[in-house]
């Protein structure tokens, strides 16, 4: 549709600092099963404009399997074996990254993830640290599911849901999903002329999922269910989702101008509140970290991270990535004051306790950052 024909009115985009842009293979695949810059160019221009304004963007991109088929001139076949898909993905990854690199004058970094990487808390933290470092270095991360090693029971299933997980992983403000339809409708507009556009969704109730139908069903909105699942995951993390038509040049241009045409999915609570709620309710591992009064004041009054210099001791046998209790030990005894995700194991915390952050690597031989618990992973108790 042209902009004049679109039933979705323009909205003003809220301000954002960091975003995830998900681009599906339908926007990248050429008729010969290879990759085409036709729609990717406009999206890349939106990314470039955002970067020029000091914002940060992470791209979640499909297309490796389609690119791999073009390399060996093999047509898509129904029910292709997992091994074939994995081989095609391996052949096509370089082409997909090359497509994105051609649009930018900064380095593009390829990041491949599996379900296991995001289910395992320590690997989750490692992935987050890597992505944050890439952004700090000025690189543009391009993420895809690692189809080369994924197996059926471990696959994330689709890049819509992967993008939502990544948005929470990197603490994004917004998730942009580029698709080949103008937004969310009450039913599939391609088969139902009475389908009504839905511009703004305050809360994703079961009724919306019923409108979407099952994945691939003709009654649904055309592959819309996984996009609703992604929006629900993002909302739970306090992140807004914007669903738009990436094949419409005018809709893509609007994004760089701070405007939006499509469907906006709002979170029930802000990002900080969602994060703190999660931190308060994740089960604790046995043991914990004992801190002094100075560290307790810095965390409670200044919102500071917990540094090794304020650590008195570590109890138990927790591991990096575990949710643990933080306890203050003073002349009044010992009491729980906070909980958070430890960047170091109990063994490591004991070795670096009372030491300066700059000494961590010389003591351990490695480091996961200067904080024992980062303030984003820390919540004070009442």
Automatic annotation (TrEMBL):
SUPFAM superfamilies in the record: Carbamate kinase-like, PUA domain-like
Binding positions (substrate): 62, 147, 159
Pathway note: Amino-acid biosynthesis; L-proline biosynthesis; L-glutamate 5-semialdehyde from L-glutamate: step 1/2
Any one GO molecular-function label of the UniProt entry: glutamate 5-kinase activity
InterPro entries linked: AceGlu_kinase-like_sf, Asp/Glu/Uridylate_kinase, G5K_ProB, Glu/AcGlu_kinase, Glu_5kinase, Glu_5kinase/COase_Synthase, Glutamate_5-kinase_CS, PUA
Location relative to the cell: Cytoplasm
Gene3D superfamilies the UniProt entry points to: Acetylglutamate kinase-like, PUA domain
Taxonomy, superkingdom: Bacteria
Sequence ranges assigned to domain PUA in this UniProt record: 287-373
Catalytic activity: L-glutamate + ATP = L-glutamyl 5-phosphate + ADP
Enzyme Commission number: 2.7.2.11
Pfam family, one: PUA
EC class of the enzyme, as a word: transferase
Keywords: Amino-acid biosynthesis, ATP-binding, Cytoplasm, Kinase, Nucleotide-binding, Proline biosynthesis, Transferase
Annotated ATP binding sites: 22, 179-180, 221-227
Main location, first listed in the record: cytoplasm
Assigned protein family: Belongs to the glutamate 5-kinase family.
HAMAP family given in the database record: ProB
Role played: Catalyzes the transfer of a phosphate group to glutamate to form L-glutamate 5-phosphate.
NCBIfam families: proB
Name of protein: Glutamate 5-kinase
Taxonomic source organism: Pseudoxanthomonas gei
Lineage: Bacteria, Pseudomonadati, Pseudomonadota, Gammaproteobacteria, Lysobacterales
